[in-house]
Write a structure and sequence with these properties.
By secondary structure, the protein is of the alpha/beta class. The chain has two domains: 155 residues, 3-Layer(aba) Sandwich (Rossmann fold), CATH 3.40.50.150; 49 residues, no CATH class. The protein has nine helices and seven strands; from the N terminus they run αβαβαββαβαββαααα. Strands 3-2-1-4-5-7-6 form a seven-stranded mixed sheet, sandwiched between helices. β2, α3 and β3 form a beta-alpha-beta unit. Bound molecules: S-adenosylmethionine (SAM).
C-alpha cells in the first residue's frame, strides 16, 4: 500500500530499469515491480538503518532477483547510462539538486527524472532549465503537505512549458500546474498569500515570496476570466 504522495509518483514512472534514490522502506520500487511499471530496479540508500529496511523489504517480497539494493550517496552507485529513469522522493529540493548536479558531473544523466521534494520545488525546475531537461508532467498530491511531483525528460533547447507565464510564479508553482489551474493549486497559492502577508516587510525574503504568490494568483484569476469569457 502506498500513500497518495507515492501513488502519484508511481503513476509517472514507466521504464525497463529504474533507480529509486533514498528509498528507505522500498515501498515505491516494490510496487513499481509488482504493478509492471518497471522490469528491474536499483535501490540506493545512504544510511545503514534505511538500507537494512530496504534489504529486508525486498527479501520479504521475494524480489531480490529484480531489485538490486546498493549502499551509497545519491547517484554515485550508478554507472553512466546504466539506468534510463530515476526517482527522488521525500527529500528537500536543494538536497535533490545537489544529488543531480553531482550525478551529472559524473555523466549520470538519466533520460527521465521523477522528483517529489518536500519543500519549494523551484531549485529543481531551475536546475532542469540549465541541465537539458524539459518538464513533461506535474501533479500535486494531498497529504501532510501539498506535495509537488514533477517528471523531467532530457530534451534540447529551451523548455516551452514556461512560454507566456510569469517567470518566478512558474518556477515556484509550476508551469503545467498553472495551466491546469486545479482547486488544490488555488488553495495552496491562497494559503501562501495569507501566510506571507504579515511577514512581508519590504526587503525581507518573504516580500519576494509574497510577490511570487500574488503573481500566480493574478495569472490564475486571469485564466478564470478568460474561461468565463469563452463560455459566454
Ligand atoms: C524521508 S526518507 C524518504 C523515503 C522515501 N523515498 C519516501 O519518499 O517515502 C529520505 C531517505 O533518503 C535517504 N537519503 C538521504 N540522503 C541521501 C543520499 N544522498 N543518497 C541516498 N539516500 C539518501 C535517507 O537515508 C532516507 O532513507
Amino acid at each position: 500500500m502506498l500513500d497518495a504522495r507515492l501513488e502519484t509518483v508511481l503513476s509517472l514512472i514507466r521504464a525497463p530499469v529504474h533507480a529509486d534514490i533514498g528509498s528507505d522502506h522500498a515501498g515505491l520500487p516494490l510496487e513499481l515491480v509488482r504493478r509492471g511499471h518497471i522490469e528491474r530496479g536499483v535501490i540506493v540508500e545512504l544510511n545503514s538503518g534505511p538500507l537494512e529496511n530496504a534489504r529486508q523489504a525486498v527479501a520479504r517480497a521475494g524480489l531480490g532477483d529484480r531489485l538490486d539494493v546498493r549502499a551509497g550517496d545519491g547517484l554515485d552507485p550508478l554507472a553512466p547510462g546504466e539506468v534510463p529513469s530515476v526517482s527522488l522522493t521525500g527529500l528537500g529540493a536543494l538536497t535533490m539538486r545537489g544529488i543531480l548536479e553531482r550525478g551529472a558531473a559524473r555523466q549520470v544523466r538519466p533520460d527521465a527524472l521523477v522528483v517529489q521534494p518536500n519543500d519549494n520545488p523551484a531549485p529543481l525546475r531551475e536546475w532542469a532549465l540549465g541541465a537539458g531537461y524539459h518538464l513533461r508532467a506535474e501533479r500535486l498530491a494531498s497529504g501532510y503537505w501539498t506535495y509537488p511531483v514533477l517528471r523531467f525528460e532530457r530534451a534540447d533547447g529551451p523548455d516551452p512549458a514556461y512560454d507566456g507565464l510569469p517567470r518566478e510564479a512558474a518556477r515556484r508553482y509550476g508551469p503545467l500546474l498553472l495551466h491546469e489551474a486545479s482547486a488544490l493549486l488555488r488553495q495552496q497559492v491562497h494559503a501562501d498569500v495569507t501566510r506571507l502577508t504579515p511577514l512581508a516587510a519590504p526587503g525581507r525574503p518573504a516580500a519576494l515570496e509574497l510577490a511570487t504568490a500574488q503573481a500566480a494568483l493574478a495569472w490564475l484569476d486571469g485564466q478564470t476570466s478568460l474561461d468565463a469569457g469563452a463560455e459566454r
